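Quarterly update from the structural biology core.
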Amino acid sequence: MFTLARLVHDAPVTDLAWSADGAVIVTASSDGKRRIWDAHSHTLTRTVQGSPGPAARVGVSANGATLVANAEHEVHVFDGDTGELRLRLSHEAPVLAVGVSADATTIASGGDDGLRIWTADGAERRHVKHRGAGVSCLQLSANGLRLASGWADGRVRLIDAQTGKVQRTIEASEAPASLAYSGNGERVAARIGAGQLGIFATATGKRSATIPVAHPFGFGADGNLMLATGEFEGSEFSVALIDVNSGGIVRGFLGHTDAVTDAAFSPDGGNFASASADTTVLIWAAP
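Predicted structure, tokenized:
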């Protein structure tokens, strides 16, 4: 399988997000820059400055008009069209995860002080805390009504994004460094041990599959395929494409020269993008 494009950065790429309308890819890199790319021409359209560091994160609304990024103890909300900084949302500890709903009405952020849910105008809707455990990763559902969050106590919590109420707790055993939440909200994947991830049914919390790769990234549009990275049968893959129903790896994609840090499907499932510490994002044709 060949790459369609290579998006070159000046520093390791730590995160990426693909807008739901398919038009925009947003990337974060450890030099603090958040870059906005045209997803069709693969050209850089705008750069906004954030906070440098290996935990730089980014999220984008469906139409690309709202961009969220972490910056030390804050979440910065930018106008995706102009790059203007619109809001600064404060935490009491470093922010490690950010997300925004497709319609940009809900912003979520997590860190050592827990999970915070914000309205579009920057008002704090809820602050969710659990015995001092911090939040390492999160993803909002496609409709923005629920979010999946990975906590340092080794649990994945599914939370109502309006009320902050925990709807289900899933024992992942290890503090997830990343997770994947299907667009229909029916499945969540998280690391459960060294070189292993579990796929769980959100309705029951029961594990439906165990897969010998380390980190989940994102589900395809129908929830039957997932992107991850890690080892499988002794082979090192840059990115693994997983059949969620069988738990098997469809194929591995080699191309990066350093660790893969994130991956995401295009909304139509025809392509996917992978980000790496090798300072590139690769765009692939999905099989």
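The chain has a mean pLDDT of 92.
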